[in-house]
Amino acid sequence: MNLTRQQALAQLEAWIDDPSLRKHARAVEIAMRAAAAAYGSGPEDADLWGLTGLLHDADYQRWPEDHPRRIVDWLREQAEEEMAYAVSVHQTAWNLEPKSALDRALVACDELTGFVVACCLVRPDGIASLQPKSVKKKLKDKAFAAKVDRQIIRLGLDWLAVEPDRHIQLVIDALKPHAEELGITGTR
Predict the structure, then answer these.
(1) Do 176 and 143 form a contact (C-beta atoms < 8 A)?
(2) pTM of the model
């Protein structure tokens, strides 16, 4: 991998100034680092997977109609084909088949991480006591976080071939130590 976290963060900050989108990028980075340990080759995948999570929506604020073409092109210019392909796969409307665990994990982490954060924002104690059971209950409520595509969450879980509770817990456990940074400590 040629890209450093500093370079990735500089690109993200150049294209995104919305604090919510930046927090989402950071949350997906955190979830993807945990996913690397669970579904990848281990610690050696953490940087690649984390930076893929950090950059997956980097062009969304400026060019939502063209997303993720701009960030994919930028990643290819940096000779980061593996990251570029994973970000392409996460745009499920492009109907690309996942080739690697990285591709599958990004789809499994992106929407779910956003949903877990949404769950935390309405809880008095945020992520502190959040359980997979509560997340699954909220997933059934179509009015809650209505913009989150539940079909993509299911697709990601299917692609990973992992039990929903296990993957939801992985995301919760990954985000919990970063609750303050992500603003998910609760409503009290």
Answers:
(1) no
(2) 0.95
